[in-house]
Structure formats: structure tokens, C-alpha cells
Amino acid sequence: MKLSCTKDNLALVLSLVGGIAGKNINLPILGNVLIKADTQTVEIVATNLELAMVAYLRAKVDEPGQFTVPARTLADFVNFLSGEKVDLELVNNELVVTCDRATTKIKGSPADDFPVVPQSKDGHGFTVSAEDFKNGLAQVTPALARNDIRPELSGVFFSFNPEGFKGLVMASTDSYRLAEKKIKLTQGEESFSAIVPGRTAQEIHHLLSAASSEAEKNVRILINENQLVIHYDGAQLVSRLVDGKYPDYTQIIPKDFKTTAGMSLAQLTKEIKAASLFSTTGVNAVVFKFAGESVALASSSTQTGEYSSQISADIVGEENNINLNHRYLLDGLNGIRGERVYMKMINADSPCVLAPEKDESYLYIVMPIRQ
Length: 371
Fold this sequence. Notes:
Strand content: 35-45%
CATH architecture of the largest domain: Roll
Low-confidence stretches: none
Strand order of the largest sheet: 6-2-3-4-18-17-16-10-14
Mean pLDDT: 94
Number of helices: 6
CATH topology of the largest domain: DNA Polymerase III, Chain A, domain 2
Structural class: alpha+beta
Shape: elongated
CATH superfamily of the largest domain: DNA Polymerase III, subunit A, domain 2
Number of strands: 27
Helix content: 10-25%
CATH class of the largest domain: Alpha Beta
């Protein structure tokens, strides 16, 4: 195997696939990337058996071949290079990497030992705007459950063309908060739903975020009962899906509210961050009181002290109060676009809804801290 490419192209491709490769005591080769060169194309492949990424590298191939090397070692070395052109050559079961005056030999393993990436041609096909998909994933992934006690909650629920909406609905919840985002599909009429692993959702977001301004505008999705395949800008991501049934989260979304307060998103975010400095560690409680033309925030801790402040707000409805987790609130506010945000609530024991102004495609719900 012998090929040459630009340093920037190689570094970009390695950054795309590198997050998937990782240490595995039982199967060390999963820490490697497969470099697969034929006369026409060069593929860089990484897998952890649950998730795989195939990225295409623009390169000039002098001799076809394939070999695997540690992903971290190759990526770190390439990032240190200062030249523009990189030559890769397989010599005596070592990958020789040359750039300007720098040369290294990286020990690896034969390609025959690398797991085969499954290919899927059957399933439901959809197309979605890359920008909308990327932003939507960023809005819902913070609410993912961080453990596998209930595996379905560690994944993002994808519902294509559900009843009442033509498009893709993504939702996530860890039972303390819930995020839901609706985006339009550019192609695909069938109805289908599945649970996509949280790690996969994060890798899709990483893939879309790394794209250049000249990248494709749409993402192609192929999904069936067991597998999700994403095609985008010269890369292919293949992932298993989470078994199980996603809870009917729509039941906890309040339909009517007793209090609605509209206020500056930037000001609310700033005040919650300030209040967080004086909240009890582990509880993270901030008290909100809605009255008149302002929202009062307060927090206290036996270790750090007390905090109180007020924000001007347009309040409609009854006076109200609620205790909320500041970390969950900030995660939701980070997903809101625009200058204003609305907090909607019923009482101190019911969920609080965060919603952008004039945008019904996104909502974020936080469960209250009961005293």
C-alpha cells in the first residue's frame, strides 16, 4: 500500500472516525483505524462493534492495499506535522508516514483482523437538511440519560412522520427533563420510529459539525428495525439501534398553564449562572417567584451563602413559584435560539416548560424540585 494526500484532509478524516475507535481489552484492534486503498478511493474506517464510521479520503494511490494502525497514535502524529503533503506506505507490517523532513514508522495489525462493517440496503429512506439536523441534535442530546439502567432513555427517540406532523420528531429524556425538536424532511413520506443510541446521536452531530461550507446541504438516512445508516459528504455512519419501547413522553407535556413569563434569554441565563454559585451542591435548586412585572430568583447554601435577584418579565396569569435545577435549566436555555424565552408553569409540583419566542418546533421541560 502506498498513497499520498494533504495533511489537512488526513487530519479531518481521522478526527471524524477517531472518536469511535477506543481501548478494548478483549479486542485491542478496535483501537485501530483501517486504511483501505484501492485504485479509485481510500477509506478510513473505525468501529466499536455497535457503531462504525467509514470516511473517504481524497488521495493519490500508487499501490492499493490495506492495513490497520492505532487511531490515536496516527491522529496525534499527523496533527504535529507542519508540511502540506503526507505520504503513507506499508513496509514490513509497519506504516511509514513521511511529511517534509519528518518520518515515523507506526506498528499495526493486518486488515484481516479488523471487524467487517455491516452494510444495509433495506429500510426506510429519508432526507433532511444537514443544518436543521445538526441543530436539532444539539438541542435534544443534553437531556439524555447518562446511565444504562433504562437503555431506552440513553437513546434519542426518532419518529418520522408521526400522526399530526410531517417531518422528523426527535426527543430525549432522563426522567428529570425532556427535550423535543421537530424538523422538516426534504424527502420521505413513510412513518417509522426507532431509538438511536445517544453515542450515535453525538457522533452524527460531530460529523455534521466538521463539515466545510462547501459540504452537502442534505443528509441521507436509511433506517430499519435494527440499523441506522447516515450518508453525508463522503462519510457513512452505521449504527445498531436500541431495543425496547420508548415511553409515551407526550403525556407529561402540559397543555394549559396558569402562569407564562416572557423575558430576555441572555439575562435569564446570566442570573441562573449567578444563582448557581450559591445553590446547595447536589440539589442545585434555584427558587423562582413570578409576580407583577418581574421574576425573582433566589438560592442559598450553608457553605457559600445566599443570592437573590429580579428580572423584568411580561407575566400573564397567576402569581406562582417553583424550585428548579439550575444545571437542567441551563442545558435547555443553551438550545434556545433568539432573544427571548418563555417559562410556562401550572404550580410548584408540575413540570415547567421552556420555549423560544415564535418557534413551536422546540420545547424543553424541567421537572420541579419538590420541597
